[in-house]
Design brief:
The chain has 238 residues and is of the alpha/beta class. It is built from ten helices and seven strands. 41% of the residues lie in helices and 21% in strands.
Amino acid sequence: MQKLVDQARSILGLSLSKEKIDLLKIYERELLDWNKQVNLTAVNNLESVRVKHFLDSMTIQTAWDRSLPPKRLIDIGTGAGFPGLVLKMMWPATQVTLVESVGKKAEFCHHIVQLLGLEHVTILAERAEVVGQDPDHRQSYDLAVARAVARMPILMEYLLPLIHRNGRVMAMKGETAPAETHSAGRAIHILGGKLNKLIKIELPGVVEERFIVVVEKIAQTPDEYPRRVGIPAKRPIL
């Protein structure tokens, strides 16, 4: 764990307190234990969990270039809680909503939240399209994040309806990010967004290119978006 602490400091400029380190230790233990019975993640060794899940999740903090953490954050397709639960540990005062349609993964997130005693975390075993039309969630978040969920035109329809005007979307993508972002230009415009920047991320020992695509919300999302479940993926806005 000391290696992760050093990497967070040297690469991201983040300082991990003893309390946060203790939470991460419990998290990784439970993740690897559950993963023996439930397919939570393909990453199944300690070193990879720390870099490809924990450190990778923390990169969102460096992209949030504001003096205060977001008040409300939503993570779509969180899986085993990445990046949402790691960000909750880093930003304890932030209200976090995790959306995961796969029941076993949502169950694991419930388990971790209870085990770690995390407050103000909501877990929805639901589809993004449904959450995006729910008045309790629609256009009410400062930050919406997603990692390896869908191609950018589809992902924008999942994420942009959830943030308020002046909020931000951060999509964690691989080497296809520049091309995907270009293809999502029309979707971003229609849904009320504006491309802010692409941030290239380098993680130790990870050769694949990684990016955070940052999109700002400059206008209200039209009421018809997101469309009903399955339609964004079948007929993306292009």
